[in-house]
Design goal:
Shape: globular
Number of domains: 1
Structural class: alpha+beta
Distance between the termini: 18 Å
Helix content: 25-40%
Low-confidence stretches: none
Radius of gyration: 14 Å
CATH topology: Glutaredoxin
Number of helices: 5
Mean pLDDT: 95
Order of helices and strands: EEEHHEHEHEEEEH
Strand order of the largest sheet: 2-1-5-4-3-8-9
């Protein structure tokens, strides 16, 4: 079962995983807003949101950035799905998606990770990347969504 959580979105509203019970959910943990690979990843989702919408999958982006930083990032990139602030690093830890030490001696940054959670709250796919320069396997994500749609 996917661990439940509640985080604030860029509109300062609490969002919980259980809010999406009965829908598929794609959690995308990413290190930091405004960085090149994170921007590329989230813009890929923005540009291909119909692939997720067509299988009733809610995408949620999660990073340890503040909700204010994420709001600016979402606005500038025109992102069409919620970004959630895990500023206290609790959810990233819960999903084993947190670097103890990252670049430039930064501590407690989210790893690039993806999880597909089905309508009953079961994790059906997970990928946790140690190298933040790598891109999520969106083919595997779509394949998993196709089998649980």
């Amino acid at each position: 079962m996917a661990p439940d959580f509640t985080l604030f979105d860029t509109e300062k509203k609490p969002v919980s995983l259980h809010d999406f019970k009965g829908r598929n959910v794609v959690l995308l943990f990413f290190p930091l807003a405004f960085t090149s690979v994170c921007t590329k990843e989230l813009c890929y989702v923005r540009d291909n949101i119909s692939l997720f919408n067509n299988v009733d999958a809610q995408v949620l982006g999660i990073s340890v950035d503040s909700l204010y930083t994420l709001a600016k990032f979402k606005e500038e990139q025109g992102l069409n799905f919620p970004l959630l602030s895990d500023f206290n690093k609790e959810v990233s830890k819960l999903y084993n998606s947190l670097y103890e030490n990252w670049n430039y001696n930064m501590k407690g940054v989210s790893k690039r990770a993806s999880f597909v959670i089905d309508r009953q709250g079961v994790i059906r796919y997970s990928q946790i990347l140690e190298n933040a320069g790598e891109f999520p396997d969106f083919g595997a994500i779509q394949s998993t969504l196709g089998t649980i749609a």
